Amino acid sequence: MDLESLIGVAASNGASDLHLESGLSPALRIRGALRMAGDPIPSKAMAKMARLLLNEEQWQSFLERRSFDFSRTIQGVRSRVNLLHSSRGVGMAIRLLTSFQATVEKLNLHPDLKKLVRHPHGLILVSGPTGCGKSTTLAALIQEINLTETRHIITVESPIEHTFRPRRAYIRQREVGRDTPSFEQALLDALREDPDVLMVGEMREPETMRLTLNASETGHLVLATVHSSSCAEALQRVASAFPAEIQDGVCAQLADCLVAVVSQRLRFRPDLNIRVPECEILMATHAVKNFIRTREFFKIISALETGAENDMWTFQRYTKWLDSRTNWSLPDQNPEPLENEEPAADTASLPPVAGASKFPRKSSGTTPNPAAKEKARIEIEPDEGGLESILKKFG
To answer: Can you tell me the distance from the alpha carbon of 349 to that of 153, in angstroms, rounded to the nearest whole number?
Structure first.
């Protein structure tokens, strides 16, 4: 089977991941469990699949590093691909991304999460283990801003997982390795690009963490992900990424800019046949900020237990709320709106452009049709080939 057929099989079975390896059968991850499907893939066929996905420059980079991350739309499914080299030869770990626009309601998240993105500045961390839906929750928070506020949003991702269509917000998405050489360079650039909201796909290196903290202190709302199993561990992980001699300063900076930490995990609901996120939500109260400054992260657990009145949630309380919930959003229950049904940006509150009245448009003798204007809107999808591909289209 070729890669398109394998992706089609994975998508039709509701798989979240597809694993391919030379000499092994394809493996699908369905509801958290691996299932083998099909015959072993010959090493030559596996290498051919990989070569067809990359251009010459990307292939040379893969040969040098023995791994390469990218995203592609394959068989109509947007996929995040990690191409790797193992003892058997070439392999792939493919994450099948959801095609719908993620929202708090569609992900069955608690509506309190919407309050987080109303802050004008600060840092929101979304944490959890690999494959728990951190990026999708982050996309839902960005979409909440997109649907409700006119703000300038810049996302820095490696690679881009969820594409956004601007509604009220002005959204720029940059992919590391294609649109910018690194997270660090993109964050430095972003401070000169007049953003209101920054989304950092993942804080891996101390320099990325430092620039992220700096951005959240300079009047921007910053959303980022980090790998951890709890809110306290997420904060401790950020602090411990720096040298010991500057950790006190980092903790003080983190306490000053923190808005909230959301830690999540997925739990399968047999009654609904879906996996739903369970969350732990830590709000940056005065007590929590003091614990961060003094590096007493173990005390955050007690703050979570007693912080219900401050909109904090422990995993236990959140699970009880899920068990009492009756209205659920199920896959394919609410179809995506057509492009000509997209709400236009709210421009009623914007002042008229200076000098616009000096150059009136010629009247065509007919009354303008608002629906026709809406249909004439141009939607430009991200070009997966990067800048070189865009320039070639213009000769």
So the answer is: 20
Cα separation, 361 vs 364, whole angstroms: 9
Name beta bridge partners: 41: 22
SS3 of residue 255 by DSSP: helix
How many percent of the chain have pLDDT more than 70? Answer: 84
15 neighbors 131 (Cβ within 8 angstroms): no
Specify the residue for token string 């708090």. 104
Q: How far apart are CA 199 and CA 156, in angstroms?
A: 6
User: Cis omega before residue 195 (within 30°)?
Assistant: no
> What pLDDT is recorded for position 361?
39
Place of tokens 């101390």: 206
Q: Say what angle helices 206-217 and 183-190 make with each other, to 10 degrees.
A: 10
Task: Give the alpha-carbon dihedral of 306, 144, 252, 182, to 10 degrees.
Answer: 140
pLDDT tens readout for residues 281-295 = 999 999 999 999 999
Angle at 31 (CA atoms; ends 29, 37), nearest 5 degrees: 35
Residues of 325-339 as b/e, b for ≥16 C-beta within 10 angstroms?
eeeebeeeeeeeeee
> How many CA atoms does the CB half-sphere of 40 hold within 13 Å?
7
**Paired residues of 225 in beta bridges:** 126
User: Shortest CA distance to 329 belongs to which of 159, 178, 106?
Assistant: 106
Q: What is the pTM of this model?
A: 0.77
Check: CB of residue 106 under 8 Å from CB of residue 241: no
The answer to whether 204 and 176 are in contact (CB under 8 A) is no
Q: End-to-end alpha-carbon separation of the chain, Å?
A: 36
The residue type of 271 is D
- Please give the average per-residue pLDDT across 51-70, as a whole number: 91
Question: What is the spatial distance between Cα 218 and Cα 110, in angstroms, rounded to a whole number?
Answer: 29
Contact between 263 and 234 (Cβ < 8 Å): yes
pLDDT of residue 341: 34
Is a pLDDT exceeding 60 seen at residue 354? no
Note the pLDDT of residue 372: 43
Pairwise CA distance, residues 55 & 269, whole Å: 42
Task: List all residues 6 or more positions away from 129 whose beta carbon is below 8 Å from its beta carbon.
Answer: 227, 229, 265
